[in-house]
Structure formats: C-alpha cells, structure tokens
C-alpha cells in the first residue's frame, strides 16, 4: 500500500510544482509578451493542470482499492478470531479510558480564570 502511495504522492507534488511554475511564467508574460507566446503558455498551463488532475484521480483510485482490501482483510480476520478481536477492543478501550482519566485529572477546573 505504501509503495503505491509514496511515488504517486511525489509525482503529484512534482506535477503541482510544474503547474505553479507554468502559472508564474504565464503571469510574468502577461505584461511583456505577444499573443502567440501567451497562447503557448496558456496551453502549457492547461496541460499541466490536466496531468495533475489525472494523477490525483489515479491516487484516489489506488487509495480506494487499498482501503477496500484492508477492510476486507480486517473483516475476515475478525470473523476468524472473534474473541481476540474483542480482547483487543477491550484493551484499546481500557487504554483510552486511562489516558482520558489522566487528562481530566490534570486539566484545570472548568470556569477557572487564568
């Protein structure tokens, strides 16, 4: 799962940097370029945006597939190990309860003026 996300995230980040770079070039050329150069820059900006959108869509699809696989694996494991799952849930609940109790004990009283 991580092996797909990291390269894709890096690719999207690079593509977004390209979009920003193209947009900066486009804005800089607005005041000093003829219409042919502006049209060429506008096309490059649109191409960069389209490429970034496609990569974002691919990452979204990969994330959805990964979450579905993880969800299925968890459901299968819980079905095969129900009592272990209950014990883990109880342990997590106990740990959270202890942490919340400590936080409540260390918190200043409500309504106290600072």
Radius of gyration, in Å, reads 26 Å
Low-confidence stretches are none
Terminus-to-terminus distance:
47 Å
Write down the secondary-structure element order.
HHH
Report the structural category. mainly alpha
Question: Approximately what portion of the residues adopt beta-strand conformation?
Answer: under 5%
Q: Kindly report the average pLDDT value.
A: 81
Give the oligomeric state: single chain
Number of helical stretches of at least 4 residues: 3
How much helical structure, as a percent, in the residues? over 70%
User: What's the main sheet like?
Assistant: none
Explain how this protein is built:
The chain is mostly helical and 114 residues long. It has a domain at 2-79. Helix content is 87%, strand content 0%. The protein is built from three helices and no strands. The chain has helices at residues 2-29, 35-80, 82-106. Helix 1 runs antiparallel to helix 2. The relative contact order is 0.08. The model has no long low-confidence stretch (mean pLDDT 81).
Write the layout of secondary structure elements.
Layout lengths: L1 H28 L5 H46 L1 H25 L8
Give a short synopsis of this structure.
With 114 residues, this protein is mainly α. The chain is 87% helix and 0% strand.
Which features does this protein show?
single chain, 0% strand, 114 residues, mainly alpha
């Amino acid at each position: 799962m991580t092996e797909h996300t990291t390269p894709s995230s890096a690719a999207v980040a690079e593509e977004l940097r390209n979009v920003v770079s193209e947009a900066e070039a486009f804005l800089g050329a607005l005041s000093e370029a003829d219409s042919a150069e502006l049209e060429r820059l506008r096309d490059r900006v649109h191409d960069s945006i389209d490429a970034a959108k496609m990569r974002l869509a691919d990452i979204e699809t990969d994330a959805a597939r990964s979450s579905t696989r993880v969800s299925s694996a968890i459901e299968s494991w819980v079905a095969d190990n129900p009592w272990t799952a209950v014990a883990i849930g109880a342990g997590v609940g106990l740990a959270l309860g202890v942490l919340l109790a400590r936080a409540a004990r260390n918190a200043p009283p409500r309504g106290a003026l600072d």
